Amino acid sequence: MTQRSRLLMCPPQHFSVLYSINPWMDQDRPVNVKQAHAQWQNLASEISRRMDVVTVDPDPACPDMCFVANAGFVHGNTFVPSRFRYAERQVEEAGFREWFRAAGYRCVEIEEDCFFEGAGDALYDTKRNVVWMGSGPRTDAKAVYELAVATNLDVRGLELVDARFYHLDTCFCPLSTGHVLYFPQAFSEESQRVLAARIPASSRIVVSETDALGLACNAVDIGTGIIVNHATPELRSQLAAVGLSTTIAPLGEFLKAGGGAKCLCLPLPFPSSDRWGSRHRRSHGPFELRSGTSV
Ligand code: ARG
Predict the structure, then answer these.
(1) What's the CATH number for 6-279?
(2) Least C-beta-crowded within 10 Å: which of 65, 137, 169, 200?
(3) How far apart are CA 117 and CA 131, in angstroms?
């Protein structure tokens, strides 16, 4: 029997827009809490039909903690914790370190003076065996070197130049099929050239600004397709033309904080299941995952 992939999520009990650290966040545009909880639950249910979802307890002091992609970078049983740029999110660091240690991961630290926002900016391209790393708004360019040393992986830097696309996963998504969804204008010209040189045109799926602003690149890879907040019919047919399905899970409340489907998840490729004690398998009040869940 093949093992189902595992992925981490954090229930949005305390999700809110209480500060503004990216252009999407406006404290005068309040989150509809009920709607946010329903959207998260729907996403978690969609995902748990295909993968095992485990959760980390939300911390009341961390309104952005549901965006677990930013916890750090995970490769095998190695966890490289983030060093957030803004104090508002630095408060999440200790809790994530503790969770990964308790789950049996080896924590490998990068230099303290280097900002690094985990799987929001560092995306493993399984097909090419490289990690693409976005830098500029959040992660420092020198994190390319830091992550390469920490993981022994081939890390390639990409420069982000549009403040709306402040994390790499808001404008770029390498899929396990080798296709890459991306919004080229979010990158410097040099980085656009790097991508064009490394990824054949037939594998590059260019999204429009409309799709990019619906966070269509912020997609959860399910192998045969994607789960995403939004995709125009044009994008859906581009995906269908290469054999990929599109499942829409609306996440408008989370877009108010600048995050979509992929930001709310962190794949956990750690292969062994015997280290997972029952303490990692709780459900959280109203957040009962309905199908195929290991929570
Ligand atoms: N409000 C959060 C922040 O600005 C959103 C993070 C979204 N996460 C991501 N991986 N793009 O940090």
Answers:
(1) 3.75.10.10
(2) 200
(3) 14
User: Ligand 1 centre and the CA of 230: distance in Å?
Assistant: 17
Q: How far is ligand 1, taken at its centre, from the CA of residue 58, in Å?
A: 15
Cut 0.90: pTM above it: yes
Q: Rounded to whole angstroms, what are the CA distances from 3 to 7, 21, 143, 193?
A: 13, 38, 32, 38
- Quick: pLDDT tens for 14-47: 999 999 999 999 999 999 999 999 999 999 999 9
Q: List the catalytic residue out of 167, 179, 230, 280.
A: 167
Of 171, 263, 265, 280, which residue is the catalytic one? 263
217 as an active site residue: the answer is: no
List the structure tokens of 220: 């959860």
Residue 167 falls in the annotated catalytic set: yes
Residue 1 CA, ligand 1 centroid: distance in Å:
36
Nearest to 131 by CA among 154, 160, 100: 154
Delimit the domains of the chain by residue range.
6-279
Confidence grade of residue 182 (pLDDT, cut at 50, 70, 90): very high
Question: Within 6 Å (CB) of ligand 1, which residues are found?
Answer: 21-22, 25, 64, 67, 69-70, 89, 120, 167, 169-170, 257-259, 263
CA 95 to chain centre: 18
pLDDT at 272 (0 to 100): 44
Query: How far is the C-alpha of 102 from the C-alpha of 15, rounded, in Å?
Result: 24
CA–CA separation, 30 and 256 (whole Å): 8
